[in-house]
């Protein structure tokens, strides 16, 4: 299948919405490997009763960076990140870094419920012949540096 693992992340004012969305889509999420930042993960594990959900550190304590590292390593195919557009966050650089790395590695990112609905119901989710194109960074990694 095209998408096998999903990271789920939400800021505090958005956690309720993410948990609701995840419950509505429990069947679609069932075959997928789930990752989440610490507090989001705790709520989702309880609500979805998914003991197999991989909870990382809480976002401000390094969890966003852990998710970013997994995206760079190709372990996460889709990021659902309900970030809060109305409240400043102390770890804003980590949030930007996570969104940057997801853009860099060309994985789909849903930052609100409407987009998450589009993505999760996309035919590409289960299409074995579809894979997001992984970027080729060989020009960059092989560049001349003196
Ligand atoms: O802060 C977050 C994302 O930036 C989410 O972290 P928690 O899930 O630990 O609250």
TrEMBL record:
Belongs to the methylglyoxal synthase family. Catalyzes the formation of methylglyoxal from dihydroxyacetone phosphate. Residues 1-146 form the MGS-like domain. One of its GO terms (biological process) is methylglyoxal biosynthetic process. It catalyses: dihydroxyacetone phosphate = methylglyoxal + phosphate. The lineage of its organism: Bacteria, Pseudomonadati, Pseudomonadota, Gammaproteobacteria, Pseudomonadales. It holds the Pfam family MGS. This is Methylglyoxal synthase. PANTHER family: METHYLGLYOXAL SYNTHASE. The keyword Protease does not apply. It is an enzyme of class 4 (lyase). Its EC number is 4.2.3.3. One of its GO terms (molecular function) is methylglyoxal synthase activity. GO terms for cellular component: cytosol.
